[in-house]
Amino acid sequence: CAAPTATPTPPTTTGSPTTSTATPAGPSTSTTPTSGPP
């Protein structure tokens, strides 16, 4: 039983860093449209 529980642990750590990288990319796009109207 201990073996299967340890398997899901490694993949979870790899996914966390990937999500954080996508967050900073979002704000950059929002800055572009702001310069359009003014």
Report on this model:
It is a single chain. With 38 residues, the protein is an all-alpha fold. It contains 2 helices and no strands. It has helices at residues 2-6, 9-35. The chain is rod-shaped. The termini are far apart.
Short note summarizing the structure:
The chain is an all-alpha fold and 38 residues long. It has two helices and no strands.
Count helical runs.
Answer: 2
Look at the helices and sheets and give the structural class: mainly alpha
Report how far apart the termini are: 62 Å
> Largest sheet at a glance?
none
- What is the N-to-C order of secondary-structure elements (H for helix, E for strand)? HH
Region (Disordered): 1-38
Topology:
Blueprint: H1 2-6, H2 9-35
Relevant terms:
38 residues, mainly alpha, 84% helix, rod-shaped
